[in-house]
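ok new one. same drill as before - structure tokens go in, u give me an amino acid for every spot. 216 of them this time. try not to just spam alanines like last time pls lmao
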């Protein structure tokens, strides 16, 4: 694989797996816990954040040599707010029901630390293509994180998936899953699973290293 291609792929995959914003860095918890009562809400918020993340990081990267360091954070926020406003109007035009379900959390994308963090840590220091690829990986990782919570909460809390009934009329929903505590329970379960996977992988690597040392 070409070194440039490998680097680009590595930057893209960083946010999806190794530095997933929800399950590894534990960022953006406000929308993660608040809007994930259904899969539709989860994927909608995730895609809105992905759009803002990619567009704002691309523009920040383009302007990185023109913006004075003293006002860079203010400029980043104005750029992010511009794209958030576009998303806000777009969701209103597409579906008022979805807009009402997401509520103020659409506007709160402006202060999502994932976006501002990517702008400051990566986009402000790299060319546009690299910045947008890295932002896309982070955004897709965020979508995956929200969807992972939303699917579990909707199935257990309503017996449906994307509004389609799965278990019939006899199913007794776990009401707690559509309440705030349900978000914490499901998030904790996913974090536990990821932690177990990371420890298992680490033990395997340690075992292989020990075998190699003994063989040597």
């Amino acid at each position: 694989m070409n070194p440039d291609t490998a680097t680009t792929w590595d930057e893209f995959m960083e946010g999806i797996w190794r530095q997933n914003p929800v399950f590894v860095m534990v960022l953006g918890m406000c929308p993660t816990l608040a809007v994930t009562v259904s899969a539709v809400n989860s994927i909608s918020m995730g895609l809105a954040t992905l759009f803002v993340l990619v567009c704002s990081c691309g523009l920040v990267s383009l302007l990185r040599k023109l913006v004075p360091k003293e006002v860079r954070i203010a400029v980043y926020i104005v750029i992010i707010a511009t794209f958030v406003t576009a998303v806000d109007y777009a969701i209103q035009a597409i579906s008022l029901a979805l807009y009402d379900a997401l509520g103020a959390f659409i506007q709160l994308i402006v202060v999502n630390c994932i976006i501002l963090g990517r702008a400051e840590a990566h986009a402000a220091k790299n060319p546009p293509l690299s910045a947008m690829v890295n932002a896309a990986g982070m955004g897709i990782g965020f979508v995956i994180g929200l969807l992972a919570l939303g699917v579990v909460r909707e199935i257990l809390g309503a017996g449906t998936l994307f509004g389609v009934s799965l278990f019939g009329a006899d199913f007794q929903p776990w009401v707690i899953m559509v309440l705030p505590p349900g978000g914490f329970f499901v998030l904790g379960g996913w974090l536990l699973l990821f932690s177990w996977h990371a420890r298992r992988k680490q033990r395997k690597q340690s075992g292989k290293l020990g075998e190699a040392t003994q063989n040597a």
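The mean pLDDT is 89. and btw Residues 71 and 207 are 50 Å apart (CA to CA).
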